[in-house]
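Mods, move this if it's the wrong board.
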Amino acid sequence: TVLVMYTLDPAYTDLAYAVFGMITSTLFNFLFSLFSTNAHANFKEILRLPVPEWSTEIEQKLASKTRGVQQVYQSLYAHEDTYGSDQEQRVSLNDALRETRLPTLHLEELILRGDVILSGGPQYTLDVLLDRGQLAVNPQLDDAVRQAIERIIRANGSLPYGKSGKDILICHSRVAQAFLAQLDIIEKERATRMQAAEQAQHEIDALVLDLFGITQPSWRETVEAGVPWSRE
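Not the wrong board. C-alpha cells:
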C-alpha cells in the first residue's frame, strides 16, 4: 500500500508530516491490526484512532522525525532502483553486474570456453543442475573467478538452462576480482542504508510510544512484536 498525504495549504505541512509519522508508526500499525485482520485501514478507521494531547512542540518533533525517516528511505529506494532488490532487500547481482559495466559473457559461452562444465539436461533449472553437480565451474580457474561465476548462476537458479538460463550474463573471468570488489562495496552501501532506515524508523516509533505514555518495556515489546495474525 502506498500512503499519500497532501495539504490544501502550506501552513499545514508540518502537521501533515507529524500525522503521517504517527499513522505509519508501529503503534498505529498495532492498533490497526488489533481490531481487524484486514491489512488495509480505511479513512474511518484512521479517524477513530486516538491522538496524544497535542502541542506545537509535539507537532514539530514528529514532523522533524518523519522528514528524517522519509529522507533515509528515499536514499534506500534510490539504491534499490539502481541495483535491484529481492524480498529481503538484497542487491540483485544481475543489476549490480550491469551497473559495473564490466565485460560479460553469456553462460552458454562460458560452457563453450570450458570455464563452466554442463553434463545435465537443458530442461532442468540452474539450481537443480548445480545441486546435482551437473553444472560446475572449472576447478582450474582462480578462486575469484569461480566465486563470481557461481554466485551469479545461483542468483538465477530458478531459470531453466535451455530457456533463459543459458543467456544470463556473467562477468568475464579477467574482471571477476574487480566485479567481486565492486559488489562488496555495493552490498555494504545497501546494508548501511538499511540500518539507517531502521534506526530512523525506530526513533519515530519510540517517540510515538512516549507521546502515548507507553513506557513499560513489556508494553513496548508487545507493540513492536505485533499481533499474531499480523506477524503471520
